[in-house]
Automatic annotation (TrEMBL), chain A:
Entry-linked InterPro entries: AAA+_ATPase, ABC_transporter-like_ATP-bd, ABC_transporter-like_CS, ABC_transporter_ATP-bind, P-loop_NTPase
Pfam families named in the record: ABC_tran
Secretion signal, residue range per the UniProt entry: none
EC number: 3.6.3.-
Recorded name of the encoding gene: ssuB_1
Gene Ontology molecular-function annotations: ATP binding; hydrolase activity
Domain of life per record: Bacteria
PANTHER family: ALIPHATIC SULFONATES IMPORT ATP-BINDING PROTEIN SSUB (PTHR42788:SF13), TAURINE IMPORT ATP-BINDING PROTEIN-RELATED (PTHR42788)
Name of the protein in its database record: Aliphatic sulfonates import ATP-binding protein SsuB
Domain ABC transporter positions: 6-234
Keywords carried by this UniProt record: ATP-binding, Hydrolase, Nucleotide-binding, Transport
Species this protein is from: Paenibacillus plantiphilus
From TrEMBL, chain B:
SUPFAM superfamilies, alphabetized: MetI-like
Lineage of the species this protein comes from: Bacteria, Bacillati, Bacillota, Bacilli, Bacillales
Keywords attached to this entry: Cell membrane, Membrane, Transmembrane, Transmembrane helix, Transport
TM region positions: 25-46, 90-112, 124-143, 236-255
Natural source organism: Paenibacillus plantiphilus
Gene3D superfamilies for this protein: MetI-like
InterPro entries to which the protein is assigned, alphabetical: MetI-like (IPR000515), MetI-like_sf (IPR035906)
Pfam families listed in its UniProt record: BPD_transp_1
Top-level taxonomic group: Bacteria
Family note: Belongs to the binding-protein-dependent transport system permease family.
Name of the molecule in the record: Aliphatic sulfonates transport permease protein SsuC
Annotated membrane topology: Multi-pass membrane protein
UniProt domain ABC transmembrane type-1: residue ranges: 83-263
Localization in the cell: Cell membrane
Length: 258, 283
């Protein structure tokens, strides 16, 4: 199994709260192949963001195995690009400055790659703009370019389009697929949007809460580009939805995603 | 397709901004006129009242007399000499006090341990009024430059200290996570994140410190000195030369405002990126 880039096995995580311990993740197991596009969907409180933060190295104190390229995760690093729900740009840097961040634009190699990425995320003409001059979708594209500049082995996306309007969101989904097909970057994409999960993922990981666990992993065997209106798409969407309906309580809450 | 729509919106916004820039000149002229209405009216009323003999010239000389005094003092070079000394004192005191305040603010801002160690004592010192501490300085260092500079520096220290500390502590924790993910070094964390993020507060501290340095200067020069604008005022007061007192006050006001404008100009350049409320009716 040499092609596996990310291996998660028997991962458990508990949060200590005043009233006792809360199990956030219970026995999580997932193997991700190099270049694969995985979407993780689940209601709020199912631990999907926690799982992503553990892989990113932003969250520690778990038990079990998390291996990236066969190595234990040791804190955050540029090999694991992370896209937050908000763009989190540095307001005092221009678009190109934000993408380069701690790398120097005077370095011709960096300069060249930044220019290519600006082209890739379709922000040509906005290199010198400050974040306050950008729309939400443009800002999020800058943050994607910022992560891509570091050539990450895996791109971790934590509901990156959750705060955007429907038009911008579907546009950015296409941009992301474009990037994935060009760069072959492994993607781990957390969302609470059913359509988004089925539209993007080669496999959809379905998580449920109390305690956070993986309920099922569904392969989406549809060629890209996918048509949301197609009957096959709708059928798969229904399949994913069914996984949730087996639970009695209403699961999807407004404003999900912590 | 949606992208181009999105970008079109942004580029129209930018075009609007350019048009606004062209209009900017006339707006600035209007602003200057608007700001001048109140003081000009006051001056006019004052002058007319003085000319009609309604005012006691010892207590409140007319603007034209003050102007004559200003011209005279400037021509003789007396004013320039006093002003030069005052500016030098204020600047030196500000650099010493403000510099130390900035350094202390950064140090205390970075470390919770240092905060617990230093901040309580510094806050106590902050509350000591100039006039209470001036006699001690004179006792220790005499009437010379040292006691004056110390007094100015003491004043300039605290605004920069408090605001730098505040700026560092209010850096968005979410951006620290970005720094971690991008593997910023400690040094990059300071230069790329903490300093730029606290710059608005540091500038506020600088402006307040510059103001306080001027205030401290007057106290220092009035408590015993043979030069400087503060001395000029004090000396003129004892001879009832009210016009000279007014000239001194005006010089303080003008130079104070100029130094503040200088800092503001620098601030506007360095904080271009800021996206904050600029007050109603700016367009």
């Amino acid at each position: 199994m040499a092609t596996e880039m990310l291996t998660i096995d028997n991962l458990n995580k508990t949060f200590a709260v005043p009233s006792g311990d809360v199990v956030a993740l219970h026995n999580i197991g997932l193997k991700v192949k190099k270049g694969e596009f995985i979407t993780i969907i689940g209601p709020s409180g199912c631990g999907k963001s926690t799982l992503l933060k553990i892989v990113a190295g932003l969250d520690t104190g778990y038990s079990g195995t998390v291996l990236l390229n066969g190595k234990e995760i040791e804190g955050p690093s540029i090999e694991k690009g992370f896209i937050f729900q908000e763009p989190r740009l540095f307001p005092w840097m221009t678009v190109e400055g934000n993408i380069a961040a701690n790398l120097s634009l005077k370095n011709p190699e960096v300069r060249k790659k930044v220019d290519e990425l600006i082209e890739l995320v379709r922000l040509k003409g906005f290199e010198k703009s400050y974040p306050r001059e950008l729309s939400g979708g443009m800002a999020q594209r800058v943050s994607i370019a910022r992560a891509l500049l570091r050539n990450p082995d895996v791109l971790l996306l934590d509901e990156p389009f959750g705060a955007l309007d429907a038009f911008t969101r579907s546009h950015l989904q296409e941009v992301l697929l474009d990037i994935w097909q060009t760069n072959k970057t492994t993607m781990l994409f957390v969302t609470h949007d059913l359509d988004e999960a089925v539209f993007l993922g080669e496999r959809v990981v379905i998580m449920n809460p109390r305690p956070g666990h993986i309920r099922n992993i569904l392969p989406i065997d549809l060629p890209f580009p996918r048509k949301r209106t197609g009957s096959a798409f709708q059928e798969l969407r229904r399949l994913v939805l069914n996984e949730f309906e087996k639970v009695e309580e209403p699961l999807f809450e407004i404003g999900a995603g912590i | 397709m949606q992208a181009s729509a999105e970008e079109a919106v942004v580029s129209t916004l930018m075009k609007k901004k350019n048009r606004a820039k062209r209009r900017g000149l006339s707006i600035r002229a209007t602003n200057v006129l608007l700001g001048a209405i109140l003081p000009l009216t006051l001056l006019l009323v004052w002058e007319v009242a003085g000319a009609r003999g309604l005012l006691n010239p010892i207590l409140l000389p007319a603007p034209s007399e003050i102007w004559e005094e200003l011209v005279g003092l400037t021509a003789s070079g007396e004013l320039a000499q006093h002003l030069g000394i005052s500016v030098w004192r204020a600047l030196l005191g500000f650099v010493i006090g403000g510099g130390l305040g900035l350094a202390a603010g950064i140090w205390v801002g970075f470390s919770y341990k240092t905060e617990r160690l230093l901040d309580p004592s510094l806050q106590m010192l902050r509350m000591l009024p100039h006039l209470a501490i001036a006699p001690l300085f004179i006792l220790w260092f005499g009437f010379g430059e040292t006691s004056k500079l110390l007094l100015i520096a003491k004043g300039a220290f605290f605004p920069l200290y408090v605001n730098t500390f505040l700026g560092i502590r209010s850096v968005d924790g979410k951006l620290f996570d970005v720094g971690r993910v991008l593997q910023f070094s400690k040094w990059q964390l300071v230069t790329k994140l903490i300093v730029p993020a606290s710059l608005p507060n540091i500038f506020l501290g600088i402006r307040l410190s510059v103001g306080v340095a001027w205030l401290g200067l007057v106290v220092a020069e009035m408590m015993g000195s043979s030069s400087g604008v503060g001395y000029l005022i004090n000396d003129a007061r004892s001879f009832s030369l009210t016009t000279v007192v007014f000239v001194g006050i005006i010089v303080f006001a003008v130079v104070g405002k100029l130094s503040d404008s200088l800092v503001k100009l620098l601030e506007a350049r360095l904080l271009r990126w800021q996206d904050s409320y600029k007050g109603d009716g700016i367009s």
